[in-house]
Amino acid sequence: MKGRVLIVAGSDSGGGAGIQADIKAVTAMNGFAATAITALTAQNTEGVHGVVGIDPAFIAQQIEVVLSDIGADALKTGMLHSAEVIQVVAAGIAKFAAGVPLVVDPVMVAKGGHRLLLTEAEAALRDTLLPMAALITPNLPEAEVLVGFPVRVEADMKRAAERLAMLGAGAVLMKGGHLEGDRVIDLLFHEGRFDRFEDGRIQSRSTHGTGCTLASAIAVGLAQKMALRDAVARARDYVRKAIETAPGFGRGHGPLNHAVTVR
Fold first, then answer.
1. Which parts of the chain have pLDDT scores under 50?
2. Which of 212, 213, 221, 254 is catalytic?
3. How would CATH label the architecture of 4-261?
4. What are the boundaries of each domain within the chain?
5. Which residue in 10, 31, 92, 211 is the catalytic one?
6. Which residues are CB-neighbours of 63 under 8 A, at least 6 positions away?
7. Full-prediction pTM beyond 0.70?
């Protein structure tokens, strides 16, 4: 086991996304996952049926006690829900994990359409947490909210990535799963250049938690001192294999096979 990752995110009772997916992904990549849970959701493959937020002071306490004892080689944030939670998380990271690489998955809306980030919290995410990120991993709808213009084609993805870097993100992985067509294109913008990843689209309804899983798999790569591009490439390969071998559970958007690496 190599690489400690503290994940700050919400719980998914269905086990496909959120903290549950994060822990599985980090473990599958031979890392150690610790958590600070920001919200509880009543959730399955058909959608989010209820959300209970955790007291921000208790979120702060979770972050403090983990980092002051176990420590972390990388951090990953997911569902943060409100501006108050974002401020608390940012303060905890600044106090107890300054300099530790942070992967920000700007979770805004669940795959079933339920809003997971309050509209009034979008500015806090952009202005407070984004400048702390070593990497931010938006999908196209999330990128549109953060940059304020439509992101519909590859040229838009490049422009959005450059804009997010100007806002302070150390690197940007633009996830192109929402693009039209039978090819999936992701763009990694770092050190002033783009790395382009392209694969055939996998026709599957088992795509619940892909964003959480990808961001956590990248975070554990950084915790293991991999170069950013290598960590992204390995994480993308892992997620694709996890989709291809998904168990097919549920009536809606099903979970991945997070244990695809287990022999």
1. none
2. 212
3. 3-Layer(aba) Sandwich (3.40)
4. 4-261
5. 211
6. 6, 8, 36, 89, 92, 93, 96
7. yes
